[in-house]
Amino acid sequence: NVVLATDGSGHSRLAEAVLAKVLDPSKTKVTAVSVSAPIVVGMGTIAGGGVAAVGGLTELYDAVKVAAERFAEEATERLRGKGFDAEAVVLEGDAADTLIEFVERNDAHLVVIGSRGLGGIASFLLGSVARKLVSRCPSTVLIARAFEGMSPEESIEALNAKAELDAVVAIDGSDGSKVAMRWIQQRVSMPLAALHVVCAEPLGVIPAGIDPSAFAQVYEFDHEKARELVAEAAEELVGRAPSIDTYAEIARPSTLIIRVAAETKSDLIAVGASRHGTLERILVGSVSYEVATSAPCSVVVVRPESI
């Protein structure tokens, strides 16, 4: 049960392309949702323009709604052409709040959204909306991002040309990172060429006046634990991709995840949405926000409740 947010922009078309690469059409029902945003004006504008101003606003409101209906219907037709069971829905209201309410009401497992939209009054897929979904949506959120240095249209072409994808999985020993791994394992219809398992070791903060050597044993324990975690994860993922490599380094988590994705030219990053793990890592909130905002590819933030 998947919700695709669409506004007719190149980024929402990219979201369709990513959805089609990741999900099995025979097992997926997609609702293409377009939100008709309210027209907000000051009372002075209406008073100054009189009846003509009200009529103009009515025409603008109708035009926005008609455009939203067209975007949803066009996305639905394209998805049906790819074998998905799809329907179009048009909603009215604040984009982020309306989408989240719709997801909750319909018990959607996954929301797919472009990282940006058209801009201006005709758009609702702004960066702020995607970030609100990552922070507040109860379901797993897949943010479709253009590849680094490419437009959405170029990214769609590059993605469609790939028979297999590369993916990064961020782990920290937490339940959240385990569900991110499970999400990758369950997408059996998504062919993978390589998986890159990433665990960032904690950045140690040594209090002033304390001998750094006193923390050497603690650091070595963390380093060994990080190596164990990526090794165990790689073992669990055997068979999911022909190539699996691991990264356990001292780094800010989001920085390492983004760097590995860029170096490996990966197509997707999977991060968990629960907080503390064995290494007291936070892979939701700051990290998932930073990755979703700055990654060189699409990002899925997995929530346990939607697995």
Short structural summary:
The protein is an alpha/beta fold. It is built from nine helices and ten strands. The longest helix is centred in the N-terminal third of the chain and has 39 residues, at 43-81.
Describe the structure.
There is one protein chain. The protein is of the alpha/beta class and about 300 residues long. It has a 10-stranded mixed β-sheet with strand order 3-2-1-4-5-10-9-6-7-8, sandwiched between helices. The protein contains 9 helices and 10 strands. It starts with a strand and ends in a 5-residue tail after the last strand. About 45% of the residues lie in helices and about 20% in strands. The radius of gyration is 22 Å and the shape is globular.
The largest pleated sheet is described as: 10 strands, mixed
Q: What's the pLDDT, averaged over the residues?
A: 82
In total, the number of strands is: 10
CA radius of gyration: 22 Å
Helix content: 40-55%
| Topology as a string of helices (H) and strands (E) | EHEHEHEHEHEHEHEHEHE
Portion in beta strands = 15-25%
What distance separates the N and C termini? 11 Å
Number of helices: 9
| Assembly category | single chain
Shape, principal axes of CA atoms: globular
Low-confidence stretches: 41-54, 118-126, 275-284
Structural class: alpha/beta
Strand order of the largest sheet: 3-2-1-4-5-10-9-6-7-8
